[in-house]
Design goal:
Layout (H helix, E strand, L loop, with lengths): L6 H6 L10 H5 L27 H5 L14
Length: 73
């Protein structure tokens, strides 16, 4: 199930420390991709995704990764 797009979840979010997260994401204040939508920035999917290490991932029984590239429904 897709997590809620809340301030509490944003505070737990680890997107900002992800190797895929870029200056473009930062300038557009993109984050919490698992609760929002895919990035509007170009994302380098050859870099290691850390979605599985995020507390929101386990709290919401998520699977998969690269939510910045692959939107979850």
């Amino acid at each position: 199930m897709k997590p809620e797009n809340t301030k509490d979840n944003l505070m737990k979010c680890t997107c900002g420390s992800c190797p895929l997260y870029s200056e473009c994401n930062k300038s557009k204040m993109e984050g919490l991709f698992c609760a929002r939508t895919i990035s509007t920035c170009d994302m380098d999917n050859t870099k290691m995704c850390i979605c599985g290490n995020c507390p929101i991932y386990s709290e919401n029984d998520l699977s998969g990764g690269y939510f910045c590239i692959n939107e979850i429904k």
